[in-house]
Amino acid sequence: MRSVAVALAVARKDLTSEWRTRELVPALAQFVVLALVIANFGFQIDSRNAPAIAPGVLWMALVFAGLVAFGRAFAAEREQSSLEALLMTPASPAAIFAGKALAAALLLVLCEAVLLPALALFFSVPLSFDVVSAVLLATVGMAVLGCLFAAMVARVRARELLLPLLTLPLWIPFIVFGGQAVQAAMGGGGGTGNTSGLLIDLDILFVVLTSLVARFVLDD
After folding, report:
1. Which of 180, 65, 191 minimizes the C-alpha distance to 118?
2. pTM of the model
3. Comparing C-alpha atoms, which of 116, 143, 145 is closest to residue 131?
4. Strands (E) located in the chain
């Protein structure tokens, strides 16, 4: 229970900081809407090909928005050199990492709350529970991996280059299975097997692994 309280406190700190500055979420919301507008003009969209094109545009926007959101997860600690002070508290590194990942994931969910209705509007595709659940399940795994690598490269000068190189290969399963689930839910075919179950399995796997590795990453 103590670890849960610490994680919630860290997440609340990050969310409160974002609420006061309002730097990240408005910028990400503008980015995802702009990406949809560009894709809407860049493709010849009609009722036949929209369910096949929309999932690709959705995951492209989510990947780039996620890189920005998770890349900023440890920005305040890096700029203020406060991570060492945070680690000197009785809180466990795993709980601190869980709080950072939770806050970053919630910020991305706020962007998804803008992205999904805008996608349904621009591409005239159905926005169902299956679509939302697939995106949220993928967000969990992407968040823990993105925050783990963001912590690893936080002190590196070329962190903006290293973060995509480290993160994107491990995001591929979420993009593939999430894309299949969204495409099937939108009526574009492409659904193979129980993709939601696969996403849940991947979430459990990476949440456990990143929790075990987090103490070593943050201590270094």
Report:
1. 65
2. 0.84
3. 116
4. none
pLDDT at 171 over 90: yes
| CB 95, CB 3: distance < 8 Å | yes
User: CA-based diameter of the chain, in Å?
Assistant: 58
The per-residue DSSP string of 59-83 comes to HHHHHHHHHHHHHTTTHHHHHHT-H
Q: Which positions ≥6 away from 49 have C-beta within 8 Å?
A: 43
**∠ CA(134), CA(102), CA(122), 5° rounding?**
40
Tokens of 114: 């803008």
136 and 142 in contact (C-beta within 8 Å)? no
- Nearest in space to 177 (alpha carbons), one of 205, 209, 212: 205
Amino acid symbol at 121: L
Rounded to the nearest 10 degrees, how much is the dihedral formed by the CA atoms of 190, 182, 56, 159?
Answer: -120
Give the per-residue pLDDT at 212: 86
**If phi over 0 gives left and psi between -120 and 50 gives alpha, with beta otherwise, what is residue 124?**
left
Q: Which residue has the tokens 């700029």?
A: 79
- Using pLDDT thresholds of 50, 70 and 90, give the confidence band for residue 170: very high
Residue extents of the structural domains in the chain: 2-219
* Phi, psi of 157, rounded to the nearest 5 degrees: -65, -35
Give the separation between CA 68 and CA 66, rounded to whole angstroms: 5
